[in-house]
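Need a sequence for this fold. Nothing fancy.
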């Protein structure tokens, strides 16, 4: 008789709850067993599944997707409620669903699918589907019953943060009628903050950046509502307006030439009840050092975030050799590194023109199309986000060659032969107005540094899968080299990456000062699986453990709690909460202290304007780049150093601990002055200010500090100051009238505030020729790209000479000799590196 299998083993058996058991019970398993580290984190999660927020940390390639899917299935089996698995984009939605099919986990990408609604399938979708003002899950106040969720799994949580912030940002484009009305409404306030920034907005200058003061935004909120509310159902408004309408007065607004951007200090995540009320929220993250944003952006419990679930060992990270050529030898040419990358892609690893080894896939990560252009002659393909699905499959299936990925530093996994040589050529830069303002105000803060390191670590993680995988990594440019050389940066990497960097530094120490052939030899040891390298590489990770506690910064917790208080009308309590965070900081990070005190002032203004004014004045004492009070004081006069060489030596001694750091620091300054790229103006101005300090000049940025005056001011001598306007982003053949007028206005500003010194007008511009409609400022000098190149060579040589022996850069006499030799003294600088405009 034939057996009736439907009646066998199906009695009263209960659904499996433990994720490890769910996997063991699969009829067809993609792998015979779960990896050890997967089993560890699944067991630990199961023991903590009663915690509403759980952060799971695993190295890239550690199998986080399978972990998240099994946790979601466990929650369904337990009857806790519906399960949602969120990914950064649709490309990853498809990847997750493919993996779920291998695991036997039923999924859908439709939030209205009956299987999802009946708790029988996991909904796999992108963040935007849940977090938007027309969410299918319901939005607070829209009259719909929110979808009740048992669990939300947030995959690649750190990548989610930028997208989450974007979902809670209202952008009013310059072409929209509301843009002009808002500019008119705040014209006087913007002019008070910065006459120059206002003029740039009027001129549609792409570098224009003007924060709308919080007091003006709050006082005119009714007028703002009248301007914006009629457009709430338009495409550019409808998905954001329901999220921000109730907290519009608590938002920061920033005007640029392309848009007015409105963003709260923390996303009002409570507007999405399904997410906030979900019984379980699991964040899957890479092993990044700072988890504060999970609190500020998702409203996660800081105490639970600080207790991550991790495997017992961090040795599951793929093997990486990480080298920065410019840190090994500052004279190495980046173009030569590009040639090397092309040769490795062709199998010519020794560079003799003959392919003697198997060709490998080389993947280059760049932050922009402009950066991608430098690779154009070497690349087989340049792919952007829309090309990834097809492109990654090509890389995974065989040899493609050298591929450039534009602005994709997360969410792409390139294990095994998909990528054997990974190159980072820069990191993404802040693009929106609020982020650009933060970049200026928090440039020296550990907060900003942590974000930069996070992006670098995310990028470096693209090329390795599990612990058996391997990849060589090259970091181009002085900024990236600094990140793996300076102790302040290194401390912000994950423990496993720190161990790999330490091993790579041992290699770097042996080949420092050598040419590119030494780099080739090191790379070949990694890619050629030289036993001595593989043994040491595995040993380096063998004893590394994940950090027991996650890092959640106190001020991040304070900002979230303060915003929640303010959103419910308790703004005095919100201000007190921010002040407590300021007190806890002490004097450790003055830039951040000032930034927080500005936020405190914004909350105070809603109930006590006089107290807000006092708080903002205090903020300026800590951070000169915060907003200026309505009754701000007069600019402080810049005074030249008594002895230039002494000032330079003291500055260099305080900034650099070794000669390599000095040379990298100087090279990074010149990397930030990019000709023909207008959006880099803030970087260029900051770099030029620091260049002055490296040379011993008192140096400041009056326009950023006071809203008036030049981009930069250098006190060359006690009686002579350079009034400097940077027009490095210009592409015109002549100096335009508006630029010449700006320089003339800056000279008058200095004459008004410090009539005792001689003002020397200076402009960085691609041309010395004056437009026919313009009149040259008397006595002005121009630094063209050619002269800038000459200056770069002189300052680089100055730094190299001082770095040639320990602590020589702290020796006033040595510094004096080098300043004089390279014509970098206050009396010779402009004669050597700037030229007068030709007679008209």
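Here you go.
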């Amino acid at each position: 008789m034939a057996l009736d299998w439907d009646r066998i083993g199906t009695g009263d058996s209960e659904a499996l709850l433990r994720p490890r058991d769910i996997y063991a019970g699969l009829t067809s398993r993609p792998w015979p067993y779960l990896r050890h580290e997967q089993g560890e984190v699944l067991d630990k999660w199961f023991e903590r599944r009663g915690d509403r927020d759980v952060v799971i940390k695993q190295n890239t390639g550690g199998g986080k997707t399978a972990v998240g899917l099994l946790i979601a299935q466990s929650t369904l089996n337990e009857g806790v409620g519906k399960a949602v698995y969120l990914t950064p984009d649709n490309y990853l939605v498809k990847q997750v669903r493919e993996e779920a099919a291998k695991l036997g986990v039923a999924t859908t990408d439709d939030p209205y699918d009956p299987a999802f609604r009946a708790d029988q399938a996991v909904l796999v979708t992108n963040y935007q589907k849940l977090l938007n003002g027309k969410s299918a899950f319901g939005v607070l106040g829209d009259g719909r019953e929110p979808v009740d969720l048992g669990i939300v799994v947030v995959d690649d949580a750190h990548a989610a943060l930028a997208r989450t912030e974007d979902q809670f940002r209202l952008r009013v484009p310059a072409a929209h009628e509301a843009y002009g009305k808002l500019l008119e409404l705040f014209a006087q306030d913007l002019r008070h903050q910065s006459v120059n920034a206002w003029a740039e907005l009027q001129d549609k200058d792409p570098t224009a950046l003007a924060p709308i003061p919080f007091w003006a935004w709050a006082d005119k909120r009714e007028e703002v509502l009248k301007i914006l509310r009629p457009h709430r159902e338009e495409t550019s408004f409808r998905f954001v307006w329901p999220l921000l309408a109730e907290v519009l007065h608590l938002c920061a607004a920033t005007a640029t030439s392309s848009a007015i951007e409105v963003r709260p200090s923390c996303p009002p995540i409570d507007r999405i009840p399904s997410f906030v009320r979900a019984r379980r929220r699991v964040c899957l993250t890479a092993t990044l050092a700072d988890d504060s944003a999970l609190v500020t952006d998702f409203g996660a419990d800081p105490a639970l975030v600080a207790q991550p679930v991790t495997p017992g060992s961090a040795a599951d990270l793929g093997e990486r050799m990480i080298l920065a050529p410019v840190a090994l030898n500052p004279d190495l040419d980046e173009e030569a590194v590009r040639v090397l990358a092309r040769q490795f892609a062709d199998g010519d690893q020794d560079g003799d023109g003959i392919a003697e080894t198997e060709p490998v896939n080389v993947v280059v990560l760049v932050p922009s199309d402009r950066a991608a252009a430098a690779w154009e002659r070497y690349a087989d393909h340049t792919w952007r986000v829309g090309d990834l699905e097809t492109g990654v499959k090509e890389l995974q299936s065989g040899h493609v060659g050298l591929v450039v990925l534009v602005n994709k530093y997360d969410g792409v996994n390139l294990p095994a032969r998909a990528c054997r040589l990974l190159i980072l050529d820069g990191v993404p830069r802040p693009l929106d107005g609020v982020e650009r303002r933060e970049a200026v105000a928090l440039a020296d803060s550990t907060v900003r540094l942590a974000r930069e390191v996070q992006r670098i670590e995310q990028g470096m993680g693209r090329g390795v899968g599990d612990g058996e995988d391997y990849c060589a990594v090259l970091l181009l440019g002085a900024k990236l080299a600094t990140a793996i050389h300076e102790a302040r940066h290194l401390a912000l990497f994950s423990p496993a990456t720190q161990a790999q960097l330490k091993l790579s530094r041992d290699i770097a120490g042996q080949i420092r000062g050598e040419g590119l052939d030494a780099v080739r030899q090191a790379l070949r040891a990694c890619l050629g699986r030289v036993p001595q390298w593989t043994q040491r590489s595995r040993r380096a990770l063998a004893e590394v453990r994940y950090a027991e506690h996650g890092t959640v910064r106190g001020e991040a917790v304070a900002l979230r709690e303060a915003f929640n208080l303010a959103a419910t009308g308790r703004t005095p309590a919100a201000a007190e909460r921010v002040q407590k965070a300021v007190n806890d900081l002490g004097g450790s990070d003055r830039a951040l202290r000032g930034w927080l005190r500005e936020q405190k002032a914004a909350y105070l203004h809603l109930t006590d304007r006089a107290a807000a004014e006092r708080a903002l004045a205090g903020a300026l004492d800590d951070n000169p780049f915060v907003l200026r009070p309505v009754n701000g004081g007069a600019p402080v006069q810049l005074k030249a150093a008594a002895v230039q060489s002494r000032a330079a030596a003291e500055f260099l001694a305080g900034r650099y601990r070794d000669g390599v750091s000095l040379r990298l620091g100087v090279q990074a300054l010149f990397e930030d002055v990019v000709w023909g790229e207008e959006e880099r103006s803030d970087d260029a101005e900051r770099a030029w200010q620091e260049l002055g300090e490296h040379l011993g000049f008192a140096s400041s940025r009056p326009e950023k500090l006071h809203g008036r005056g030049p981009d930069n001011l250098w006190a060359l001598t006690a009686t002579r100051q350079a009034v400097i306007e940077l027009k490095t982003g210009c592409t015109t053949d002549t100096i335009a009238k508006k630029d010449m007028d700006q320089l003339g206005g800056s000279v008058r500003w200095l004459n008004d505030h410090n009539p005792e010194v001689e003002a020397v007008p200076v402009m960085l511009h691609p041309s010395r020729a004056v437009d026919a409609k313009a009149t040259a400022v008397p006595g002005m000098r121009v630094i063209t790209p050619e002269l800038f190149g000459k200056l770069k060579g002189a300052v680089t040589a100055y730094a190299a000479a001082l770095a040639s022996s320990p602590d020589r850069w702290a020796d006033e006499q040595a510094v004096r000799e080098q300043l004089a030799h390279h014509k970098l003294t206050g009396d010779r600088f402009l004669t050597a590196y700037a030229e007068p405009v030709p007679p008209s």
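For context: The chain has five domains: 16-166+272-305, 169-266, 319-542, 554-622, 644-836.
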